Write the structure tokens for this entry.
Amino acid sequence: MSGTPLVWAVYPRTCEVIVHTADGLARTYGDSDTLEFPDVLPHFSCSVAELFA
């Protein structure tokens, strides 16, 4: 496998993170969501609210 598995677009003004995946999908995470990507970042977990605190 090559390429970038995840791209995060971080929007401080709206407290949102849009995560783009290698398969072309994108998901928007808001302040009530948690960022967790065990296949790419094992043991990483961060709430979006905490990211912008």
